[in-house]
Automatic annotation (TrEMBL):
Name this polypeptide is given: Growth differentiation factor 11
Family designation: Belongs to the TGF-beta family.
Species whose genome carries this gene: Salvator merianae (Argentine black and white tegu)
InterPro entries referenced in this protein's UniProt entry, alphabetically: Cystine-knot_cytokine (IPR029034), TGF-b_C (IPR001839), TGF-b_propeptide (IPR001111), TGF-beta-rel (IPR015615), TGFb_CS (IPR017948)
TGF-beta family profile domain: residues covered: 274-386
Amino acid sequence: MLVAKCSVFWGFLVLSLELCTGEAAEQGAEKAPTEGVPLVGTDAEDQGCPVCMWRKHSKEMRLESIKSQILSKLRLKEAPNITREVVNQLLPKAPPLQQILDLHDFQGDSFQHEDYLEEDEYHATTETVISMAQETDPVVQIEGNPHCCFFNFSPKIMFTKVVKAQLWVYLRPVQHTSTVYLQILRLKPVTEDGSRHIRIRSLKIDLNSRIGHWQSIDFKHVLQNWFKQPQNNWGIEINAFDPNGNDLAVTSLGPGAEGLHPFMELRVLENNKRSRRNLGLDCDEHSTESRCCRYPLTVDFEAFGWDWIIAPKRYKANYCSGQCEYMFMQKYPHTHLVQQANPRGSAGPCCTPTKMSPINMLYFNDKQQIIYGKIPGMVVDRCGCS
């Protein structure tokens, strides 16, 4: 009796899918696929096709979920209010940033060859932090000087293992080869008894650049001391004098120096465990497959108006959609037959991601600092019923 009921159910299911598939094909022949603004793919509008409508609903839900997940995983209450003009003003025209843009693949699909996922499948992991120079506290200034430079670091970064720390300073162009003496002074609050200047680094540089030069200074040791004793971090003063006494270091934070401000580049290390993957079906937007399947979905951040994300501007997110009827399940078929006969005993399986991979992202946070990090669980690699 149980098998007979399942056979009747299966017959009605197949018939409804055939009718749905035929209607969807006729609609597709009359109408070209439409590209949405924030996502790329076909837009199924056939009200007479339940599977097509469910696929469209799954795509829309996935897109909204991505927006909220990114803000949540980056621990942002809302998207930073940074326009494209502000990005162009703050973005350093410097080698390390260009190296990140050129050498790193921001697409999560590049991790598909791995057989594992990270254990922390929610919060973003930071790999590179670029902290821009800020104005110094008035307590270290004499008659308003020096204006530069203070670097602010979050508690999370201060408790992370720092692999590398570089201070980047832009030196103005010279017409002839010159020997430049670059020095870095640690600032302290001004008192009547002591000096506020403590020399911590000194470099001799032979400069011959007529177009300007980015100079990097190893700052790991100083930064480690700051992280151990943050109360000593009042900022630094940077000078680079040529033989004529001209200061070639660009430390002005005012107009005319956009993209040339000093900044700190940090490489940090975070370890995570991994878990194994599952297998699943892959489909395209024209597929007639009704079972749980992975479909392509491309997200466009510029269409969101999210100019605070520097890279990637677009990425392949994918989404899951389809039916999870018990007859489609391969494990324990006798259990599925019993559940089919008594549906009240179980809510039934859902088509959900069974494997997800991260994307690398370069972005501005709400403090206008440039962060390069990894956001886990942003690309659907496999879908399944669970």
